[in-house]
Write a structure and sequence with these properties.
- The protein is of the alpha+beta class and 356 residues long.
- The protein has one domain (98-355).
- The chain has eleven helices and 13 strands.
- It has helices spanning 2-15, 33-46, 67-78, 80-84, 111-124, 175-182, 199-206, 226-231, 247-257, 275-288, 352-355, and strands at 22-27, 51-56, 100-104, 128-136, 141-143, 150-151, 164-165, 168-169, 211-215, 220-224, 263-271, 324-326, 343-345.
- Strand 7 and strand 8 (168-169) form a beta hairpin.
- It is globular.
- The two termini are 37 Å apart.
């Protein structure tokens, strides 16, 4: 929480006090988040910064709640000021009071990286831009948001499962054997081969360029607010017969089906959920900085790039993938994703047409 408050203040000062609004939703914390946020709200008010800081002693009982439904509701509560602003939008609903949204999970981040994320989202022409949320261990690194992120091939960001053969589950193994392997699903031997089925994306990442993806969240986003005003976009859970995937994956799916499917990952921006792991990546990143050359991402040695390909700085925007891999969180009270069984779904089927 200290990191969030400190870095967020720097972001606000840079963007402009009179151009910023802060919304924070907290509930059920077991640390000192609540009193810190109360003090932060007072500081914002004293500085004349509009804010919606909501705290609550209530906590979510994950053993009884459907996780995705509960998380969608929490995210929508944080976005409440954005939805309230619909009445102030012009008649043609194209010019909103809020033009940009920065939405952060409880991750460790640097203010400069958040500002870079906003810049890359604007300059690339993307609707939404995500960082990379990485984890570091003594002998290996991993990408955290595997459940949400999908490349333009429709697949997970890297081949994390030992029983995958060319991206397909090895059906010669029994379910128990597959589960045993997937219980250790980070591929520690193979390294962090990001964008493993997306050669163009891999090459762009190796050059530190934004990479178009089907979906991402990765600890936070910067995005254009027009989808909220044009389509009253909200986080949601899956409709009947729809794959029960993350509310963040469904958010990306709804962006695509609303005509706002320009989504990118900015590979040079790293966040992490633990301070020590975040500092590890920041230290490694700073050690690579050289004023005389363009620095590749810190994991560039883990990317086996096809050097015969050529990419430009501008993104050649591709249409929605024909099929996307989906792993479900199947039931109320479930905490663990079903990594054993997966579906290949058509993401262009917009279930909102049937249920809204």
């Amino acid at each position: 929480m200290n990191n969030l408050i400190q870095e967020l203040q720097t972001v606000i000062q840079f963007l402009g006090v009179n151009r910023s609004m802060v919304s924070i939703y907290e509930s059920g914390s077991y640390d000192n988040s609540r009193p810190l946020l109360t003090m932060f709200a007072r500081q914002l008010e004293a500085a004349g910064i509009p804010n919606y800081v909501s705290t609550s002693v209530e906590s979510i009982n994950w053993d009884k709640e459907f996780r995705i439904e509960a998380l969608a509701q929490v995210r929508n509560k944080a976005l409440k000021p954005l939805y309230m602003d619909v009445e102030s939008v012009s008649v043609n609903r194209t010019i909103a009071k809020f033009q940009k949204l920065i939405f952060l999970n409880d991750v460790f981040f640097c203010a400069a990286d958040v500002l870079e994320l906003v810049l890359q989202q604007s300059n690339s022409g993307a609707t939404m831009a995500c960082p990379l949320d990485l984890e570091a261990y003594p002998t290996w690194q991993s990408f955290y948001d595997l459940w949400v992120a999908r490349t333009m091939s429709g697949d997970i960001l890297y081949n994390a499962f030992h029983d995958y053969k060319d991206g397909a589950a090895n059906t010669s193994l029994s379910k128990q054997e597959r589960w045993t392997l997937r219980s250790k699903y980070w591929d520690r031997k193979g390294g962090l081969d990001l964008f493993w089925k997306d050669p163009i994306g891999k090459l762009r990442a190796s050059k530190g360029l934004p990479v178009q993806v089907y979906s991402c969240w990765n600890g936070g986003i910067a995005m254009d607010t027009r989808p909220f005003y044009d389509y009253n976009l909200k986080f949601r859970t899956a409709y009947p017969n729809e794959c029960k995937e993350s509310e963040c994956t469904l958010f990306s799916k709804d962006l695509w089906n609303s005509g706002y499917g320009k989504i990118v990952i900015v590979p040079n921006i790293i966040v992490s959920y633990e301070r020590e792991k975040f500092l590890y990546f920041r230290t490694k990143w700073e050690s690579l900085i050289s004023p005389s050359e363009i620095v590749k991402p810190m994991y560039s040695d883990l990317l086996s790039v096809n050097t015969s390909l050529v990419v430009s700085n501008e993104i050649d925007w591709q249409p929605i993938p024909s099929l996307v891999r989906c792993f479900e969180l199947p039931s109320r009270g479930a905490r663990y994703i079903n990594w054993i069984d997966m579906q290949m779904i058509d993401p262009s089927v917009d279930y909102r047409d049937f249920y809204e």
